[in-house]
Automatic annotation (TrEMBL):
<comment type="pathway">
    <text>Protein modification; protein ubiquitination.</text>
</comment>
<dbReference type="InterPro" id="IPR006633">
    <property type="entry name" value="Carb-bd_sugar_hydrolysis-dom"/>
</dbReference>
<dbReference type="Pfam" id="PF05048">
    <property type="entry name" value="NosD"/>
</dbReference>
<keyword id="KW-0472">Membrane</keyword>
<keyword id="KW-1133">Transmembrane helix</keyword>
<dbReference type="InterPro" id="IPR006626">
    <property type="entry name" value="PbH1"/>
</dbReference>
<feature type="domain" description="Carbohydrate-binding/sugar hydrolysis">
    <location>
        <begin position="28"/>
        <end position="196"/>
    </location>
</feature>
<dbReference type="InterPro" id="IPR051550">
    <property type="entry name" value="SCF-Subunits/Alg-Epimerases"/>
</dbReference>
<keyword id="KW-0833">Ubl conjugation pathway</keyword>
<feature type="transmembrane region" description="Helical">
    <location>
        <begin position="408"/>
        <end position="429"/>
    </location>
</feature>
<dbReference type="InterPro" id="IPR011050">
    <property type="entry name" value="Pectin_lyase_fold/virulence"/>
</dbReference>
<dbReference type="InterPro" id="IPR007742">
    <property type="entry name" value="NosD_dom"/>
</dbReference>
<keyword id="KW-0812">Transmembrane</keyword>
<keyword id="KW-0677">Repeat</keyword>
<dbReference type="InterPro" id="IPR012334">
    <property type="entry name" value="Pectin_lyas_fold"/>
</dbReference>
<protein>
    <submittedName>
        <fullName>Right-handed parallel beta-helix repeat-containing protein</fullName>
    </submittedName>
</protein>
<dbReference type="InterPro" id="IPR022441">
    <property type="entry name" value="Para_beta_helix_rpt-2"/>
</dbReference>
Amino acid sequence: MLVLPLQAARAAETNRDLVPLQPIIDSVSSGAVIKLQAGTTYAGPIVIDKPLTLIGDASVTIINHQEKAAISIQADDVKLSGFTVEHHGGQPAAAVHITGSNNEVNGLTIRTKGAGLLLRDADSALLGHNTIEWAGKSTASSTQKGNGIDLFNSDHSRIEGNQIQGVLDGIYLENSRKALVQDNRLLRTRYGIHCMYINGSSVMNNTGEENMTGGMIMGVKNTLVSGNIFRKQSTNVHSQGILLYDVHQSKITSNTVEGNRVGMNIAESSSNEIRDNDITRNFVGIQMVLAEGNTFTQNRFISNVIDASAMDSKSNKMKGNYWDSFQGLDVNQDGMSDLPYAINPFYEQLISRNAAYQLFFQSPGMVFLSDLHSEGKSSWTTDETPQIRIGEQQAGATKTDRQSRSGLVGLLGMLLLGLSAGTMIYMGVGRK
């Protein structure tokens, strides 16, 4: 009787009823269309070294248990569509590894214990409407996880409509220029979108929630970051909605950063246009470090604990932004304040020394002390002509926020008044 070693026995059990896919691929000629049989589970890994189309539906699965890519695409003009890939090989192996150009991966469901889609020197790829999920242990460390979509030295790619969760970085692009990254959804990753050296690219209309950082944009020029929504990036002391690091001559427009530790962090970046963004309910709205020559116009700062802070940053121009914490004066009724808004750093400096003072945010005493502070006012971040009003819907939300804060402050004031009165009565009675 043949007794298999435990590992071999498990492999045999795992591969039972799996249909070998590599012989099917080897048997067809270039340009063939292979329609995978519904309800069938195929065995990986496979190598595709000629142009062809591989089509399946949600009931078709390719399973790979080896420490190599489940699907390796080494040719140009290959299309994958519609089926499921279960990749049990660990990092750095990927569910799909592409080294050819002009390839398309559309509508796959990928469950991976390594990386999802990995492209190396693979130009003009279309990666659309895929679902990529981490399939390993929930306690896995960052070194055990791969990225959802990972491009290196792969230009002119389109990455759109994908949903990615639980992996290391949702979408990672390095040295991959003129890319279009749009309409993707990134959940519970380290960095939702992580871009390095992607000059001339566009990052548009993506949504990220509960990542450590929503969009990390680094080392780029002439890039558009527009229409993205990054919410609830607050799990880490370094969490932020959007980080711009070493970004130049780029446009950051019409984004929403809400409920993050830092809404937008701008470091060592210059000559960028930052316009028409909603910066709402963050601990710090915009944080600038060594940022020079950037322009901030028509942005809306609503219900942030700290509107903006700047360190070693100069020649930045702020004009026409809306600040819900500012009450200006509009004599000519043009919607713009005739008084500038200099952002007082008193509260930020105070809590940096003792975080417990956050409890007194917007309290009457804190507002009074802040108003007294004027040291170094000429260096404060200043909007020369802030907006007095914003759109009706936003104004309604702002009014609600103000009423809520006013109610809280009023309640606190009544409690303090009652405590003071009680103390005075008690002291008076004690003296008699």
